[in-house]
Specification:
The complex is a heterodimer.
Chain A (H helix, E strand, L loop, with lengths): L9 H26 L4 H13 L2 H26 L7 H19 L5 H30 L3 H24 L22 H6 L12 H18 L1 H11 L1 H6 L4 H18 L2 H8 L10 H11 L4 H24 L5 H17 L5 H11 L15
Helix pairs in contact in A: 1-2, 1-15, 2-3, 2-14, 3-8, 3-11, 3-13, 3-14, 4-5, 4-6, 4-11, 4-13, 5-6, 5-11, 8-9, 8-14, 9-11, 13-14, 13-15, 14-15
Chain B lengths: L3 E12 L2 E12 L3 E6 L5 H8 L7 E6 L2 E3 L4 H6 L2 E4 L11 H6 L8 H19 L14 H14 L4 E5 L7 H16 L3 E6 L2 H7 L2 E6 L2 E7 L5 H9 L17 E11 L5 E11 L2 E6 L6 H8 L7 E6 L2 E3 L7 H6 L2 E4 L3 H5 L6 H4 L11 E2 L2 E2 L1 H15 L15 H13 L5 E5 L7 H16 L3 E5 L3 H7 L2 E6 L2 E6 L5 H8 L2 H7 L1
Parallel strand pairs in B: 3-8, 3-9, 6-7, 7-8, 13-20, 13-21, 16-19, 19-20
Antiparallel strand pairs in B: 1-2, 1-4, 4-5, 9-10, 11-12, 11-14, 14-15, 17-18, 21-22
Helix pairs in contact in B: 13-14, 14-15
Classes of the chains: A mainly alpha, B alpha/beta.
Chain lengths: 379, 510
């Protein structure tokens, strides 16, 4: 009774199935829109137009997507080691300290292109250290990482409130946020790229962090599939027993994978803080850490899946905001319902249509499945 | 001949492009023991799963007692009197015997009344078939032989007239197996029909009336057992002539390669699994450790190879100690020339989700020849994998194929190729041919003998007594964590069987 279903060709596995899942999610979302008395087709047009209709909108979509690429990659790296890092939210939040301390210290003396690498290092370091504690507790004490990382989200939130209200807020200000960064703490925008393509951008927050996110996507791919460390991470993730047999240290991999994950989540803080607002305010992560889980699930923990999945969620964020603005019956909460449906179908119910599609494929073109003839049947 | 209890007509079943059963015709006469043999992947289990309602056939008809019958679920199968005893028992470990027997057939709202009803029925069954088990014993405290008896009682309690047993002797001592066969014969005399799925030819010859051979999803032959031979059946299974005896020359054993002294190992629950064990393995010999599964063999090789911590004792590899109590690391032991083919290739020896080439470096992934700085040298790994595929005839010969898509025998060859090609001084092998087809067994045995002839020390663990006897130069028998005897390769099966059952051990203790 071995593998009843054979493997699908890559394009169906990574392209067709997510597409079908997405389609079903949007049909369900359309029913919800219908239920509140709006025209789902018009809603879809507004959503897509709001996300991609103009240079301005595209820039916003990509700005949100930047956050989700970082957090999605973070979840994916931990996931390859068989670890479920729910703490991206807290790791990104606390990493804001690394970013803003660097920016506050150097924005008057260094140009942005020198502050930026320092801030990257600061963000990654603080994020990694925040992930280190749950990782250590898991590796040495057996405390379950899902529980500890959730707890650390709350701790991070409280620490940040304390830091912003009591330490980082300038004495004369009312709002719990840092002072505005000077030019040396502000990242350049990428709007000129869109403008070069003939699109007009008024003022959108898309900045150079987006390129960093893409670089990190390549970095994660190389790390996981091309390095010895990545091999060890995958071995441990698939089978801790096989890792033990191969002489791979469980605690070492747990700690390293979680620190890389935390570092990636931490880099997300660069985008809103140095790229957009040029100060650090309360709750700048705004759920991006959790969206990262959905992005990683939908992107099958592969950078090539994660980047489009992040852009999809960027589209839902940006287009959803436009939709809420255009259609009075559709509130912000409705947008969250639609996002929830996408997560449900693309993430949680990912395997719902798989068996049907696999059977379909097998009967249509056995050759494309790359399986040998009858020999490997189930006995 | 009596009427047919079961008749299968033109059964077809495909999983994707894999045709697991093609046009199967089979007639099983009432009141007989019918053996079904075939290599792994031949389609035996699929066929029986169709009969028991786990799968549905794509086409074909099942007739039970001459009537066409639709079997969609195991409940349908039970309703027409088909019972199944699985290879891996389906018992609730912390329930009593009687609770397990009524499980799913409670019948009453209150457990107490249904248990009372079941008890008298159970007593009748036990008397009638000589299947004594204490109805109030807790399953996890029973030896496997008795657990199996509970499975049989469970099927009979549900009114089974036809009993399917899937590889029933895999976990039994020779004595327990003999007892099982006596029970089966008794059941036959009471008019029950028994279908025995096995890959052990000896059992087929010993107990069945008729035997059907499957190969690559087809039923290739059905014979009267009295009119066939082991050689003919083996040839039918594999499709070519097979050498059943391993040919090996005299041992030219040299110095000590591996010395184990007073080794004690506990499992995760703190139960002592290996109890003060000492032995040596010399260069150029195969030392086999026989024993019923669960008597400490697994923990023993895990401790020696650094996968599991020992509590006390010492192990010397080439005269230098291995820190088995402290920080023995499997990676370091590999560097010192100790290779290990683990018992469980699915979860330990291989990562099934990996491509074949990725598994061909598992454990040796830190060898500089597979690396370029921190990066994997993909070209070198692929070239190396192709070489091993060639040399060990691993099929299909595609190093990019997912390991899960290889058959059991080929998966085992991937592990063996990896461990043997490192040219280790000591090779520890656990269950080298478990779930491996006959053709591959022959190949694996030849390789092990070749290692020995090349002056390597081989420590072999196997629950297959035949394998231990034909390969080993010396045989150690383990029972309840201790080595209870050492014998030469000419020891009889009966002698080893008694040792494995702990008979001599008990006498010595008294």
């Amino acid at each position: 009774m071995s593998t009843p279903y054979a493997k699908l060709p890559g394009w169906a596995d990574y392209g067709l199935i997510p597409l079908i899942n997405l389609l079903v999610a949007f049909i369900m979302a359309g029913l919800v829109v219908l239920l509140v008395g709006e025209n789902p087709l018009r809603a879809a047009v507004i959503l897509v137009d709001g996300a991609f209709g103009s240079g301005q909108n595209i820039a916003y979509t990509l700005y949100y997507a930047t956050n989700f690429i970082f957090t999605g990659l973070a979840v994916a790296v931990a996931f390859h080691a068989g670890l479920f890092n729910i703490g991206g939210e807290g790791q990104a939040y606390i990493a804001g300290l690394g970013v803003s301390l660097v920016a506050l210290a150097f924005d008057s003396v260094l140009p942005w292109w020198l502050t930026f690498p320092l801030a990257i290092a600061g963000a990654a370091l603080v994020g990694a250290l925040w992930a280190l504690i749950p990782a250590y507790l898991q590796a040495k004490r057996g405390s379950h990482i899902v529980i500890t990382t959730i707890m650390f989200n709350f701790i991070a939130a409280s620490v940040m409130v304390y830091m912003l209200v009591n330490v980082l807020k300038p004495a004369a200000e009312q709002a719990p946020q840092t002072r505005q960064f000077l030019d040396g703490g502000q990242l350049p925008k990428l709007n000129f790229i869109l403008e070069a393509l003939g699109l007009s951008v008024r003022s959108a927050p898309l900045n150079i962090s987006f390129l960093l996110a893409l670089v990190m996507a390549v970095f994660v791919w190389a790390l996981i599939w091309r390095t010895r460390l990545g091999y060890e991470i995958r071995t441990f993730g698939f089978s801790p027993k096989a890792a033990r047999y191969a002489g791979i240290s469980e605690s070492r991999i747990t700690i390293i994978a979680m620190m890389i994950s935390g570092g990636l989540a931490g880099m997300m803080a660069l985008n809103p803080i140095m790229g957009d607002q040029h100060h650090m305010a309360l709750d700048f992560v705004a759920g991006a850490g959790f969206v990262g889980i959905a992005v990683a699930l939908m992107g099958r923990s592969h950078p090539i899946g994660i980047v489009p999945a992040a852009i999809l969620f960027g589209m839902l964020y940006q287009g959803g905001a436009e939709l809420a603005f255009e259609m009075p019956n559709i509130s912000r909460d409705m947008i969250v319902i639609i996002q929830g449906l996408v997560i449900l179908f693309a993430g949680a119910l990912e395997h719902m249509f798989r068996p049907t599609i696999q059977t379909l494929f097998a009967s249509l073109s056995p050759r494309s499945m790359g399986i040998p003839a009858a020999k490997t049947g189930g006995a | 001949m009596a009427e047919a209890a079961i008749e299968l007509i033109g059964i077809n079943k495909s999983f994707g492009a894999v045709h697991a059963n093609r046009d199967i015709h089979l007639e099983i006469p009432r009141g007989t023991i019918h053996g079904i043999i075939g290599e792994n992947g031949a389609g035996k289990s699929t066929l029986m799963s169709i009969l028991y309602g786990f799968y549905q056939a794509d086409s074909g008809e099942i007739q039970v007692g001459g009537k066409p019958t639709l079997i969609k679920t195991p409940n349908d199968a039970i309703a027409v009197g088909i019972g199944m005893v699985h290879q891996h028992f389906m018992l609730v470990q912390n329930f009593t015997v009687i609770e397990n027997i009524i499980l799913g057939a409670e019948g009453e709202a209150l457990l107490k009344t249904s248990i009372a009803k079941a008890r008298s029925e159970l007593e009748r069954l036990e008397r009638e078939y000589g299947l004594e088990v204490d109805p109030d014993a807790v399953i996890e405290e029973l030896p496997v032989g008795l657990q199996q008896r509970v499975e049989i009682l469970k099927a009979l309690y549900r009114g089974a007239e036809i009993l399917i047993l899937d590889e029933p002797t895999g976990v039994l001592t020779p004595a327990e197996a003999d007892h099982l066969f006596r029970i089966l014969k008794q059941l036959k005399e009471q008019g029950k029909t028994i279908v025995l799925i096995t890959h052990k030819l000896r059992e087929i010859m010993a107990i069945t009336d008729n035997v059907s051979v499957m190969r690559q999803g087809t039923m290739v032959a059905t014979r009267k057992t009295s009119e066939t031979t082991v050689e003919e059946l083996a040839e039918l299974m594999v499709g070519r002539r097979v050498l059943l005896r391993v040919e090996k020359g005299e041992t030219k054993s040299g110095g000590f390669k591996l010395s184990v002294k007073n080794l004690t190992v506990k499992d995760s629950r703190g139960v002592t699994m290996v109890d003060d064990v000492s032995f040596d393995v010399r260069a150029g010999e195969i030392v086999g450790i026989a024993g019923v599964a669960g008597n400490g063999q697994s923990e023993l090789i895990e401790a020696i190879s650094g996968v599991r911590r020992a509590v006390s004792g010492s192990v010397m590899l080439d005269g230098k100690p291995i820190d088995v109590v402290g920080v023995a690391d499997p990676g370091e032991l590999r560097d010192r020339g100790l290779a290990h083919v683990p018992e469980d290739r699915h979860h330990v020896g291989l990562v099934l989700a990996f491509e074949e080439n990725e598994n061909s470096i598992l454990g040796y992934h830190d060898d500089p020849k597979y690396l370029k700085g921190p990066f994997l040298d993909i070209d070198a790994i692929m070239a190396d994998a192709k070489e091993k595929i060639e040399k060990y005839d691993i099929r299909p010969g595609n190093p990019k194929l997912k390991t899960a898509n290889f058959s059991g025998g080929n998966q085992q060859k991937i592990v063996l190729a990896r461990e043997m090609e490192q040219d280790p001084g000591v090779l520890i092998v656990g269950q080298p041919t478990r779930g491996v087809d006959v053709g591959a067994i022959e190949f694996i045995h030849k390789r092990l003998i070749a290692m020995r002839d090349a002056g390597k020390a081989v420590l072999l663990i196997s629950v297959e007594l035949d394998e231990i006897r034909s390969l080993s130069d010396r045989i150690l028998v383990m029972f309840a964590g201790r080595v209870v005897g050492e014998r030469g390769p000419d020891a009889t099966e009966g002698e080893l069987g008694l040792l494995m059952a702990g008979v001599e051990h008990k006498e010595a203790a008294e």
